[in-house]
Amino acid sequence: MANITHRPDEHIPPAEVPDVHPPHPHTWIGRWVFSQDAKYIAIQYSGTAIAIGLVALVLSWLMRLQLGFPEVFSFSSEAYYQFITMHGMIMVIYLLTAIFLGGFGNYLIPLMVGARDMVFPFVNMLSFWVYLLAVLVLVASFFVPGGPTGAGWTLYPPQAILSGTPGGQDAGIILMLLSLILFIIGFTMGGLNYVVTVLQARTRGMTLMRMPLTVWGIFTATVMALLAFPALFVACVMMLFDRLLGTSFFMPTLVEMGEQLSYGGGSPIVFQHLFWFFGHPEVYIVALPAFGIVSDLISVHARKNVFGYRMMVWAIVIIGALSFIVWAHHMYVSGMHPYFGFFFATTTLIIAVPTAIKVYNWLLTLWRGDIHLTLPMLFALGFVVTFVNGGLTGLFLGNVVVDVPLSDTMFVVAHFHMVMGVAPLMVIFGAIYHWYPLITGRMLNEAMGQIHFWVTFVGTYAIFFPMHYVGLVGVPRRYPEIGDPAFMTFAVDGLNAFISIAAFIVGAAQVLFLFNIAWSARHGRDAGRNPWRAASLEWQTPQVPPRHGNWGDDLPVVYRWAYDYSVPDAPEDFIAQDDPWTPQKVPA
Amino acid sequence: MVVVVALVVVVVGSVVFHMVSPWWWTPIASNWAYIDTTLVITFWITGVVFAAVVLFMAYCVWKFRHQPGRVATFDPENRRLEIWLTAVTALGVAAMLAPGLVVWKQFVTVPDEATDVEVFAQQWSWGFRLPGEDGRLGTSDARLVSADNPLGINPHDRFGQDDVIVASGDLHLPVGKPVKMVLRSIDVLHNFYVPEFRAKMDMVPGMVTYFWFTPTRTGEFEILCAELCGVGHGYMRGYVLIDEETDYQAWLQEQSTFAEQYAGRGVRAASVSP
User: Fold this and answer.
1) Which value does ipTM take for this structure?
2) Would you identify the CATH topology of the domain B115-272?
3) Boundaries of each Cytochrome oxidase subunit II copper A binding domain copy (chain B) (predicted)?
């Protein structure tokens, strides 16, 4: 472990470039609106993501009203498809991706690697404003004639741009595609920043193998996103051309409602390949930051080093690489050549191995720890349960022939909500409880937090665990109501009503959480310095909360990894990364 | 120790729900019982892993919870344990993948004796076509779709003349004979899905997709569209009836061929025009 902990004979190389202080704003607008400080941009990103996330929450309530009580709340099919489409798109792209990379990435990367800021602060600022524009274009689609697109979040052509789909021949789909294009432009500006900052702006002594797993997760996810989003970008541009200019990238010869259209020669499956070449890495773009953050939460709150740190780093990198060759497992029944199934089922199940290693190492980090059941730890435990559950059902869907009966049923909906909906959200919540004291200097209210955790953990499990069985019965996804067809062994309407009620309660708990965030900013208990006694660098800034430029006059020097907890003979149960302490007797 | 109790309850509750809940898959009506078997194997392996992981975590939380004087063990790595866990996981994954791939090989290998049956989808209805005496389906093209030729059959293809057209109505198939379902759409993506058959496949405009199965019991089975196809998606239903051979032949006699339908409409159109 020589490269991880400090030894007296270790030579820390001098800085390769002189310390550069980030530009200081002199105007109120420069400080509070067009801020170039990554910490402030992180708050802007997170605030916007949570605001648009609330829209997605309300949409989920509306769709659950329809599914749970179709007799009472009978929305039109148009409205129902608009609810599910916008809910999915907002949650996956505009909330989860934005908050993990734009939010946590911006706040934590510079602080955790010992940089003063992102390396390109102006581009970083621009990244947020383009993201905000993307969100506004998305919101605008709710107010245009015809409303937002109802093509499903996968936006499969030809239906996405035809009149049988809400927004297909109106402005809805156009605004959706434009918004995605803007999002990708904005993300690319931020993403290049995160990658270059991690590679170039680490402080002295912060080797790659000393970075916290949070940074590893966000860094790898960003690299993946920079490679995956272009596929979505070109798919959006091509579909926009098909819709507006009459090209036929994705459009074969079509007869719509008895009328011959002028399209011809294109292939709808090409879109699916482009979409999932982005879409599968996207799952890990959300999951890898969550993996990294949860590793750190478990380590800090169990007062124990992350078990198998190097294996954890390699698992993140391997999962990231493998996730680029599994995309067609979303397309087993798409009509692509059936022999692809052999390849993609094999690669998909191979990914289970490094993922399982991560789960084992989280458990082994708890083993012989000193487990403090703080709110971040509770959410971390909740994450492991939901992630393991969702990951295991992935083995059903990844194993090509088992997928055939389950594909396009509610089983799929239950699976991906468990694994990339609830599990990452658990980490986001845990992370907010963990870093809120750093950001505001105050603790979030514990009682409200306990209610939030228990309702969210038990409630989401009550929503999504039974939903697998709705799919197993055979109910397809994207049906506003199933009725009681003969194939059902037992009607699902009672179960659907139960799921809906659980969803309303879980949603209400999120409102309490947001209230807690607002309330505690003024009334929360004073956090003091480093309330969790964490070793990683972000808690060691001269001022808490960290000021502009992060480190005062001198950059910190790093002597060890971020996980020196409960080190034998150490004066305290943690050793900060910038603490040069070494044991009296150096092991040979 | 609420958390420990909650974790145990999650495991026990999940297992009990799985065992006693009335929601389970519909009885199978095709040869794909292997798929069900693979699914059950997967349920067992994943169920055991889920219970083991969550119960182990509950044990850790109980055993190593913070108490005054408790100190965590500094324990960075254990190469042997990590390799051992990796190997066991790889073995479990292989145990699921291997039977899965074997069954997939069967799924994608259409037997020679399978009869072609065409399913035709458009927003939001189903049509069907059976090969006539010659046992071959004629060619088709979306450009030929018209009120007189709703399935877009090529009128100049001799193989298409005796094709049996069921433009609207139920599909009948004989029990016990393998069929290759040839799937065609003329507008958007659809998916031919009958829960009892276990198999499903997307229908893609511009190309022809397929899957095969053998019906194993008679009865009436509902067809559901399983790929979002616009506002009518949830209501795009149809029926397949699996008949004994004699019933099937009786039904077949009542159907008309493409030549009969096309010519008949052609004559009617001609008689009206002058």
Assistant:
1) 0.94
2) Immunoglobulin-like (2.60.40)
3) 112-254
Chain A residues inside the 8 Å CB shell of B23: 466, 469-470, 472-473, 489-490, 492, 495
Give the gap in angstroms from C-alpha B238 to the nearest C-alpha of chain A.
Answer: 12
Please give the Cα distance from B227 to B191 (Å, whole number).
5
Which of B16, B24, B84, B85 has the most A C-beta neighbours within 10 Å, making it the best mutation to test the interface with A? B85
Cα–Cα dist A477/B270, whole Å: 47
Residues A75-85 have pLDDT tens digits of 999 999 999 99
What average pLDDT does the segment A353-358 reach? 94
Q: Are strands B237-243 and B171-174 parallel, antiparallel or unpaired?
A: parallel
Interface test with A, best of B48, B70, B190, B202 (most A CBs within 10 A): B202
Distance CA B104, CA B5 (A): 41
Amino acid identity of B264?
G
User: CA B103 to CA B99: how far, in whole Å?
Assistant: 6
Long-range contact list for A60-65, CB < 8 A, 24+ apart?
Answer: A60/A87, A60/A503, A60/A507, A61/A503, A61/A504, A61/A507, A63/A87, A64/A499, A64/A500, A64/A503, A64/A504, A65/A500
Task: Please indicate whether, in this complex, the C-beta atoms of A366 and B6 are within 8 angstroms of each other.
Answer: no
Helices (H) and strands (E) in chain B, counts: 6, 10
Q: Does domain A33-249+274-540 have CATH number 1.20.210.10?
A: yes
**How far does the CA of residue A319 sit from the closest CA of chain B (Å)?**
14
Query: Could you give the residue range(s) of every CATH 2.60.40.420 domain in chain B?
Result: 115-272
- Rounded to two decimals, what is the model's pTM? 0.95
